[in-house]
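Hello K.,

You asked for the raw outputs rather than the summary table, so here they are, unedited. I folded two proteins back to back in the same session to keep the settings identical. This is the first:
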Amino acid sequence: MSSYLDLGGCRKRRRGGEKVFKFKTFGENGCPVEFDGSFRDNVKALVEYGHLEVNLCGNGVFSWSFQLEVHRHPPLHVVLFIVEEQIQASSSSSINLHCKHCQYVGWGHHMMCNKKYHFLLPSKETVAACFNCDETSFDDPNPEKGKFNLVELKGHIMHGVFHSNGFGHLLCVNGMEMGSDQLAGYQIMEFWHRLCTGLQARKVSLNDSSKKRGMELRLLYGVAYGHPWFGRWGYKFGRGCYGINQPIYQKAIEAIQGIPLCLLNHHLSISNNDISVIFSRYQALSDHSMVTLGDLFHFMLELRSRLPKENSIDSCNPATVETNCRWSPKRVEAATRVIVEALKNAEFRWVSRQEVRDAARAYIGDTGLLDFVLKSLGNHIVGNYLVRRCLNPVTKVLEYCLEDISTVFPNSEALIINNSKAKPRCKITKVQLMKDIAYLYKHILKDQKPTLSTGVFSAIPMATRIILDTKFLVKEYTEELSMKGNSNCSNGKTFNLLCTVISRSDEIDEELKKPLPPYECVCLKENATFDELKQEVEKNFREVYWRLRSFVVETIVNLSVKGLDLVMGSVEMGQKLVFIGSNEDQIGMDDGGGSGIVDCLCGAKEDDGERLISCDICEVWQHTRCVRIPNNEEIPHVFLCKQCEEKIVFLSSLP
């Protein structure tokens, strides 16, 4: 098997000596660069190690590629593309430049940034569409318009975008469940997490639409763990749709997690005996009592992570699989213990079958018995351990290792069989486990029966809808107090200040009450003056924001100083300062992506990405779902909100 993105073999893209980086470490400090500056400095340092692409996304757009080795045997590579998108190249209309993702997650008050940085892992199909080596040369100075715009193509394995102020969005993650045959979802997330951490990103949002076998993972993992699947990497509630806030979301999680299994089993067993069988099956596998629905889903998902991919796990010793062997149960048990002890001595690392066999021969002379037990032990439980067996893809040799499963099967020392008559309590395969999870998900969480619409169970459909309506998650990677300044200040003694700005026009118009831009970390030498500080603030904010490209600092809020005064001694290290200034350039001054007013029945006051409809009289926007227009129906040509409709009825009744 070879890499599907081995671009070195393309005649028109042959690159001599391009460096290949390790996928598993790329983004860590030192791989490939020391990330010791601000976000913008770290991006600039990173792209210096990339291969500069020509006309990949059109004229005037810079892009770089990095060859990443996923594993060597069999060889598999992917390519990371970084595309720098400048706001001037995006559109001639400033209205279209506002980031809808910022608007949806609650960052709509942020000013437009001068640049975006797209980080892309393209899929096979994207590469085939973009890198047509047979028909088009990438050195062509006049490529067909839009043909190579990698950013606009769909179906990437991963697509993330950062604004130049360090705020970003993870737009898509398509692992094996979504068709990728190279990388699993967790591998992609680990890669993205390293990039965000290394680059010193500030906050990153995502729209959680992850699914597995038709199940919404934000609901499944919310019930099992109290947080979505992306919570493994620190992503938390960012913003709910339809007016949902964090306390409402948390109460919905707790309500559905705390449903008593005994009551649920009693109500559902009347019409659906299969659910009772599933409850009993996993209670038998667990050595502790599962009381709530959250306990059950948590145990099932934990068990899934421990089960081998193909084989089944018995809750007792698998040595009874072949009870008609020529060795007595005592000899089989003795050989099993010796092999397990040999694997323990290997300190949970993978060892070859021959190495395990040689270690066991010091105590068991019968090689036929050892071969039989080694064959029987593959992917089975012995005591508190799961004996894993797999074929090394490089050496083609069988290897074994131990995995501690005491957290999944606690107090399982009694699982070792002392005689051939013992029978396993239960046997479960990964396929069966996933079927059971999907069955419970469908009949309890999604398709509730009338028996679940009363009493304590009436909370299930409402809580489910609240959890599913909570899609936007946010992770804060760099707090303001730990932000790093410009790396150019690394020579000599320096100190950092957190600075932001406000336009003189915004200060005068108090009714606007616009939020301040996020603070930027400014690094100064210890002998810097306030004139130098103002110049550094102007440079930073002009570089970041489109609106402030001609910004000139005039004064500092609540600080009366002269230009030649030393900064150190007048302010404390890490202090927050607000600078007031003037801005001659008024193009793109609006800070919102849309001009309409949102005032929905659910309480939403801003666009949250859900389908909206505007009243033809008052022009106020509301969710179509909240005004009872199904998503599968088209928006009517004429629509009146309830208030305007009532006013018309009232006026028509007047004499």
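The second followed immediately with the same parameters:
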Amino acid sequence: MASVQQNGQRFGITEPISLGGPTELDVIKTRELEKHLQDVGLYESKEEAVRREEVLGILDQIVKTWIKTISRAKGLNDELLHVANAKIFTFGSYRLGVHGPGADIDTLCVGPRHATREGDFFGELQRMLSEMPEVTELHPVPDAHVPLMGFKLNGVSIDLLYAQLPLWVIPEDLDISQDSILQNADEQTVRSLNGCRVTDQILRLVPNIQNFRTTLRCMRFWAKRRGVYSNVSGFLGGINWALLVARICQLYPNALPNMLASRFFRVYNQWRWPNPVLLCSMDEGSFGLQVWDPRRNPKDRLHIMPIITPAYPCMNSSYNVSASTLRIMTGEFQRGKEICEAMEANKADWDTLFEPFAFFEAYKNYLQIDISAANVDDLRKWKGWVESRLRQLTLKIERHTYDMLQCHPHPHDFQDASRPLHCSYFMGLQRKQGVPAAEGEQFDIRRTVEEFKHTVNAYTLWIPGMEISVSHIKRRSLPNYVFPGGVRSSHTSKGTWDSNRRSEHRNSSTSSALAATTTTTEMSSESKAGSNSPVDGKKRKWGDNETLTDQLRNSKHIAVSVPVENCEGGSPNPSVGSICSSPMKDYCTNGKSEPISKDPPENVVAFSKEPAESLPIEKIATPQAPSQETEELEESFDFGNQVVEQISHKVAILTATATIPPFEATSNGSAFPNEAVEELEVLPMRQPDAAHRPSVQQRKPIIKLSFTSLGKTNGK
């Protein structure tokens, strides 16, 4: 394989981190990865591939017939009628070559200026499709951010978008990758064209398409297994993962998928968000379309994990990511990095990396969002609308609690077989890790939930029967239909990487606590030995029946590292631990907002270790949000040189973590000079106004002592 350097071509905005080629081990591991992906069914059969091509051919003939029909109806002359044409393009996973069995095909219909979106695409073409027996499950969505029609053609799922170009004739060899295609195009057409333009640009910007595809299949499968594949839920969708993988391919242009997967986790575990991921320099363009630029656009400064599309107009494809979902994904990157390192030492395998995340074991508290409708068609519409709003609930909870209450949305809905017109969504809840609960603090999110429900019920197509309810539920009260086979396991997962890491973390924490307690006891005895106390010279000994809990209870001034699962709900990644004060006190509130415990402090966070039935959301307590809060929620859219790489890898990643330099207009007025993109300062994030913060009782700082140095001092 010829290296990129030898070909004289460079991909990306920075130099590669490594140009080294694969080792024998990389070749073996890559074969194992490809076999694993085959065994789990990620590749479609040849018969299905042929059927997809046939369906696309049929669809192309349908739109050509449609354009002839409406051209004749609009009275075009014979010459224009003869050359009237519409063309089908594909994009998304199918165009990238990473689709699996049963996946839908993202398609774009490009039509001439006289074929309108409202009257012709959602009119005549929709009518034609509805009358064809081979077309089923036709669902037009004309009011979506990117209008589309979804349907099945001969059993193959199709999402069809429409772009109306200001041309009288659409040539059969039309190249939509040229920026000139956007001239005089309406906003919805620009959005519709964006998918195809971005997909084609990605394939042009990666050094080896086959290695890119295998690595992307791997990362998509991993993200789905770990519950972080969902753009609408605030994680990342297909295009986001494709852009991230493409950047790694640029940084390691001669690497095989085994190494690319490993470096994926290493690079993004160290990435300094909100610095953006860029595959190429951003073009200001000449058509006046808005591009992503946090120096000019205030809303762009709110994006915390920007992944920029490479085609003009460059946009942030990951605007849905929130502080909580970024924290979850960062934890998953850390986990992936550790497993890949273990794989290099033959202590783990691909099965370990792809272990599914046990969402309903990770937290003690959940939000359950239940929706229902009168019939199947209404439920489909209602689900689509509610799913698009769930991100706002996460953002509002984070904002109204000043990021102290963290949410982990599950990317999928669940349905009870006994209630076909009902489905549920779940969010894991936990207090911010590493921050001790302050006395006097409470989490009352009733107002937040009511705002969310009010927003959802403002659905323009709402009809009676569309209902939504939100409630707080404990882990032990989760409905059985959320578990595989509808059966709740009697014990937590054991033998997995995650469970082993939790056990190691728990044992480490317990050992540290016991060692600290014992050392403090010895110090206390030594200090008493020099006094005139009646107990001079006596060292306290733990009784045979005294447990570790008793020891911790008696040691009042020690900061103890508590495992994540002992805090409010746990973390999806045990490596992201927390330091809590011990002993830890958790309470829940009753229906009258009174703590259910023996005289706890007022306004304590409503998390409990005690059994509880499903509680209404009114029973969770959070700080009141500012009465007039401005909300800006967007609605858019190794190798040969191992030693050298180990030494310079972190520096290289920081170099690759490039952002746009502070805005200074160039001589031609452009915000993007032709010079190389420089390293930037991190843009400040908006902080809540201190005047609106609830009063929280100040806690005494924890004084950390070095027992070794104190022992020497006492000896002196």
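Confidence is low (pLDDT under 50) at residues 1-6, 523-648, 658-716.

Happy to rerun anything if the numbers look odd on your end.

Regards,
P.
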